[in-house]
Amino acid sequence: MKENKTRCAWVPDDALYIDYHDKEWGVPLYDDQKLFELLILEGMQAGLSWHTVLKKRENYRNALDHFDANKMAQYDSAKIEALLNNPGIIRHRLKVESIVSNAKAYLAIKKEYASFADYIWQFVGGTPIQNDRKPNTPSPASTDISDSMSKALKNRGFKFVGSTICYAFMQASGMVNDHSLDCFCFNEGRVLL
What CATH homologous superfamily does 27-177 map to? Predict the structure, then answer.
């Protein structure tokens, strides 16, 4: 139930989506592991709805060692097969296989930069982009910034990081504020550490 709060038009009358929108989506996120988890989950969404991923998020956390990149980078073919047989996650071979390469690429960035957050937030100059999205106006599927992020991540070995996925990641992680102007979250300035 949506209560009497005005939310972004894309939020359905679904408790899981409402909770996600109200507490997470668009909140600036600077925690490396949470950013990594979000990037992986956004890649799992490719071709599917975010609701599908949200319903499976806890299963992913359990199946992927709570997104411990050091463990994920070591997954072997037996672990990949076990994941492909796990009904609690999206069992798409290329997506599951991308988990290993993405973990390795993430760890390489962490060796090069002070943190993954420092690396990823550089695409927006370290500060969230404040959009003025009018009610019922759709956000773009991608931008020049998400194009640049996608290209850079792919060059570093990441998979399932196309420009559309990168823009969705930017929205979800608060790198861009795409809450509509009438949404109660628009001016909240919430921050997750």
Answer: Hypothetical protein; domain 2 (1.10.340.30)
Q: Which of 10, 20, 24, 113 does the annotation list as catalytic?
A: 20
Question: Which amino acid is located at 193 in the chain?
Answer: L
pTM summary value: 0.93
CA atoms 16, 22, 27, 29: torsion sign:
negative
Hey, what are 55's tokens? 């319903």
Under a CB-based contact definition with an 8 Å cutoff, are residues 177 and 128 in contact?
A: yes
H/E element holding 3? none
Q: Is 30 a catalytic residue?
A: no
Alpha-carbon distance of 155 to 112, in angstroms, equals 15
Q: Please state the domain extents for the chain.
A: 27-177
Q: How far apart are CA 68 and CA 58, in angstroms?
A: 14
What DSSP element (H or E) covers 47? none
On the 0-12 / 13-18 / 19+ scale of CB atoms within 10 A, 59 is middle
Tens of pLDDT, residues 119-163:
999 999 999 999 988 988 888 999 999 999 999 999 999 999 999
Catalytic, 167? Answer: no
The CA-to-CA distance between both ends of the chain, in Å, stands at 28
Q: What is the pLDDT of residues 95-126, one digit of tens each?
A: 999 999 999 999 999 999 999 999 999 999 99
Active site residue 50: yes
Confidence of residue 193 (pLDDT cuts 50, 70, 90): very low
